[in-house]
Amino acid sequence: QLQLVELGGGLVQPGGSLRLSCAASARTGRLYAMGWYRQAPGKQRELVATFISALSTNYADSVKGRFTIYRDNAKRTVYLQMNSLRPEDTAVYYCYADQMTRVSWGQGTQVTVSS
After folding, report:
1. In this predicted model, what pLDDT tens digit does every residue of 58-104 receive, in sequence order?
2. Backbone angles phi, psi at 13, to 5 degrees
3. Which of 63, 65, 89, 115 has its CA 20 to 30 A from that of 47?
């Protein structure tokens, strides 16, 4: 059972930046992938970004070129750098950790992009 703690959400103006972090507190268990989903009211949950390795990352088309996901292996932490934020990026962002046999979820953090 992984415990995931998300940080970094908040209110930002359009064009601004935020960095989300997701820290896995468990000392055991191999991680296959970590990343973020997001969900806005009335919309389908969307896979935003996934980190498998430094050479294998995936992004939703809607965030390509604006978001970057990377990992600090020593800290078992992944980061989502979000630049050029748009109002349509407003959502609750949920970190996940995929261990193949199970998926763990963070508590969610609100990102609001508004003037």
Report:
1. 999 999 999 999 998 777 899 999 999 999 999 999 999 998 889 99
2. -75, 155
3. 115
